[in-house]
Design a protein that fits this description.
By secondary structure, the chain is an all-alpha fold. It contains 9 helices and no strands. The chain starts with a helix and ends with a helix.
Length: 185
Amino acid sequence: MPTSDEDIRSAIEALASTEYPKADLAETAIFAQLYAYEGDKLFDTERTILDITKANFAVFGAVMLVGNTPFFAGAVTKAWAVITSTVTICIISLAASALATFYHKYFSVHRQKVSILQRGVWRRRPLDWIQTKYIAEDLKAQFENSASLGIREYVLYNYTLKWINLIPLSVALIVAIGYGLFGSR
């Protein structure tokens, strides 16, 4: 259940009006460990996004290579080989693009959480400050929102790797259109 607007407003007011004492070193050490752990998770998420993109291009190359082998070309007609390769590449590219976008939504919210932890460690803030800051930023609702991706949101979401993952799809469609126009002669 998302945090209510009243809770968010009261958290923002508490941050503005309360002077928080510096946390003791033991509490700061715990936050430093939590910050390091969450930072590692953040980098792992970013690495996963890049791995999705690399895998997408590897599959693109593999499908193009297999589509041009004598065995595959002899097993089916050229038209079926082009259609099968194009459909396979299109499905995989769209899936990789959507997955990269989905991970980036989570990555953006997680980066915000790590930033709050970083400021808490650097300023030696107590646990109350970090919890209040999470509520003020409405991180719970943002994390819940990052767990879904609608078609309209996917189309409007502006992320570079989303478009890069669609390059194999574009190339496959160009090849298929080229074959349709010039290959059957």
